[in-house]
Amino acid sequence: MVSRVIPVDPFDLVIFGATGDLARRKILPGLFRRFCSGQMPDDARIIGAARTEMSDDEFRDMVRDAIREFGGGAYEDDALDGFLLHLGYEHIDAKGDDGWEALKRRLRDGLVRAFYFSVAPSLFGSLAERLRGFGLADDESRVVVEKPFGKDLESARALNRTLAEHFHETQIYRIDHYLGKETVQNLMAVRFGNMLFEPLWNAQYIDHIQITVAETVSVGGRGSYYDQSGAMRDMVQNHLMQLLCLIAMEPPARFEPDSVRDEKLKVIRALDPVDYHHIVRGQYASDDNQPGYRAHVDNPRSVTESFVALKCHISNWRWAGTPFYLRTGKMLKGRASEIAVVFKDAPHSIFGPDAGTHRNVLAIRLQPNEGMTLDVTIKEPGPGGMRLKDVALDMSFADALGPDAEDVPDAYERLIMDVIRGNQTLFMRGDEVEAAWNWTDPIIEGWTRRGEVPKPYEPGSSGPEDALMLMHRDGRRWREIKV
Ligand code: NAP
């Protein structure tokens, strides 16, 4: 089987913030990989823009270094030289009026035109206004915006209003890079491409669902940003919420942007407010080897959470009575993103009480080693009666797909190509983002109102003890975070 790469239409892509961390680590290396795969047409052009003054050649040198550092995988130097020929640079201050005419002269008529705002959200308004004002963008142009999309409902609404003054919703691509991950899209394929699972995909057969996104890293160099944000805003409101939507939504009529996004929105709107007894906040402490969260963010009194675990309910016919447990945190014992669908016990055991209780679990691993595991119950081999045991049918996508798995684009690559194709299915719509904030805002406000301080947890653990209790109280337990 040979993977099919379908070249996209010729395009002009302007990256505002092209000298920044995201552009150098993700966007430009991602574009290079698409170039190597043959997906970028010969007349595609990528123009970097930022305040730093530099020539086209200096920008190409910067990108060459970035790809050497972050490109990943082997490539020919000729390929890199070929890619760099597609690049140019324009020095522009988003808040000033210089440079826009020069940028306009670089853009060609009749091609796909996209503007990537890889800058702080406070610049979105200035950029959008100038793109329209100087006549660089028209009703066909696309704009790509990065997270964080607001810090609460009010700020998200303000951002949506600002963008809507200049662009129609069909032109706005709000990135949540989780949606670009291969396995996340596989969630939809597993659910809606197989007859096997969907009839069982409801409260009648599913006991509960666990979503875990565990990181081993600390807040790193993002301390000052993170301390204003915390795990709820940084991870739950967007990434975990998107996973929850895909696992819980009704089948859309078609795999088309608004059909999919309408169904996701219904899930978010059906979420009950979370009882504060059902949320645990944590903050990693120091240990013998390293300083803790407060030292990392240089704020000895910080009450920002680096860990959240919560139980929530979706009030609709499909899910009434099935709890969803969400958990994410930094400095945990392993790096693992997983969705586990835990089915109910068989209604009656014909094997008697000694056979014990056994449950089917479908676990979808997003990282590492993307794949799926289905725990099924079988007879323990050998004589001596009918003893049962659970075994895992384990499928790693890398093994199942062979060499094809190697050319799977990473999330940014895929999403940027979707922008060029004009496909918004894997991007968040404005109302979706607002609905997600509408659900998370009261949780965060409750913490502030009650003056709640996060529970400390040991680096390298599974989070605070209270998070384990959240499950134990319900007679359930979290799946082990693998080291
Ligand atoms: P960064 O490293 O601080 O880069 C910011 C970029 O914006 C630089 O290229 C900077 O270049 C440019 N810039 C700043 N002020 C400008 C102005 N007035 N006019 C024009 N350009 C200006 O930030 P980043 O990490 O790349 O993040 C960019 C955005 O993506 C942020 O909203 C961030 O939250 C989001 N994001 C980042 C990551 C990540 O991994 N880094 C992940 C997800 C989301 P000059 O100083 O040369 O102007």
From TrEMBL:
GO cellular component: cytosol
Catalytic activity: D-glucose 6-phosphate + NADP(+) = 6-phospho-D-glucono-1,5-lactone + NADPH + H(+)
Domain Glucose-6-phosphate dehydrogenase NAD-binding: 14-186
Domain Glucose-6-phosphate dehydrogenase C-terminal: residue ranges: 188-479
BP term (GO), one: pentose-phosphate shunt, oxidative branch
UniProt keyword Aminoacyl-tRNA synthetase, yes or no: no
Record key words, sorted: Carbohydrate metabolism, Glucose metabolism, NADP, Oxidoreductase
Enzyme class: oxidoreductase
One GO molecular-function entry: NADP binding
Active-site feature positions: H239
Pfam short name (any one): G6PD_N
Top-level taxon of origin: Bacteria
Involved pathway(s): Carbohydrate degradation; pentose phosphate pathway; D-ribulose 5-phosphate from D-glucose 6-phosphate (oxidative stage): step 1/3
Binding residues annotated for substrate, in chain numbering: H177, K181, E215, D234, K330
Keyword Cell inner membrane: no
EC id: 1.1.1.49
List of residues binding NADP(+): G17, A18, T19, G20, D21, L22, A23, R24, R51, K147
Family: Belongs to the glucose-6-phosphate dehydrogenase family.
Free-text function comment from the UniProt entry: Catalyzes the oxidation of glucose 6-phosphate to 6-phosphogluconolactone.
HAMAP family (alphabetical): G6PD (MF_00966)
Protein name: Glucose-6-phosphate 1-dehydrogenase
